[in-house]
Write a structure and sequence with these properties.
two-stranded antiparallel sheet, single chain, mainly alpha, 2 strands, about 500 residues, 21 helices
Length: about 500
Amino acid sequence: MNFSVLQKILSFVFLSQAIALFFCMIGGIFLGESLDSAPQKGFLFTIILALIISGGMNIASKRNKNNSFFRREALCAIGSTWLSTSILGAIPFYLGIADISLVNCIFESTSGFTATGATIFNSFDNLSASLFLWRSLSQWIGGLGVIVFFVAILSSMGAGAKILFSHETSASASDLHQERIQDGILKLLIFYLILTLSCLFSYKIFGMNWFDAINHSMTTIATGGFSTHIESFQYFNSPSIEWVAVLFMTISASTFIFIIGCIEGQKGVFRKGMEIYFFYLIIIMASFFLFFILKDDLPSMEALRAAFFQAVSLISTTGFSSVDYDAWGIPSKILLMILMFIGGCSGSTSGGLKVLRVVISIKTILKTITQMYRPNKTVIMHLGSKKINDNFVRNILVYVLFVFAIQFISIFVLSLIENSLNFTSLFSIVQSTLFNIGPGFDAIGPSNSYNSMQNSTKLILSFLMILGRLEIYALVVLFLPSIWKRYS
């Protein structure tokens, strides 16, 4: 293991996090916070701490001139980066809010960086403007990826940036169509920024104030779901704002590289969009199914808006709510739970299993059924015009089984800790954190929070949030030194 390159990466991560914290601190001052206030002192302390750690790691990294960078370094760098940023990001909450536990702060910070949107706050009365900005900015950074934002654009990383990008995001570095990985990632960042600004101005035009628009634009594009109001989008009571949110949540849950390719007019790009086409089809079908259930209890346009908003919000794993969907009937809630499982597209900011994996899994089942009755027939799987090889299918099936195994083991463990919760609550809690959704059903419905749970539960859920955001492997390998000591 080349620890010097890990120290170099973490040094730049802590430096960049200090800069992000500084922007929130300045934003708070601009909005009227005093330098003597607890949140401002908390931000200042955290910035100084981050700079000290960054400087120390930078000095330590120069002792060894070896810059070799392999898969084991990439996986360990990603896992340690997400753990350390989540812990450091908790300090402003801990120092800026009176009578709050450190575990609650770690949970809130982890939920931010993983773009989960689960919260421990029952009320936002104690949150300052700077802390609101930090919650939203952490989601915006984590939506695309901490490593992508802070490290992969460094030209000094060379081929290592490609390894980091591929293991931190659900996209493949080969999809960027660039001679230099940094050029492709920079293009992705520019698109992300333009999309965020478009969302911001759209929210402002349709009725949000600047502060709400800034915060919600970051958490919408990150498909994170943090809001400046406990009631989420119910607070605004605006059909126009809800349709704007539906549009940008849908775009943000789509494959960014595909959208960039469409804008640039890349040759043959539309033949590569089968995952997105399935994604849009699922949204339309689910929304109209919900609409036909809800239209008996709500006016038609209100039912249609609620159906589309909640279907898109939960399949994109954003987690905003425009209504109390936990009060809906069982068929509606089962459908919403299925959408949570599916998630958005690969190469987007959303969580979940991803549409691609679900489609491939279904195709594999159909292929197996066909070969049971026609064992001599050779069945070649396709997704659009692209052939799917057996190794790719095996990796997907192993991942899906791994995810479900983690989910049910976690449910069992939590049942031993939270013995007052029923199965629906336990299932929903694990699903909403492992798939980075945030709110769920029953005990964690859209009007509830995670505050009442045991500290041990919150730490387990924080781990699950990072595990789901990194799609398991990058974090698991960090705790299996036998792997990263042996293989590159």
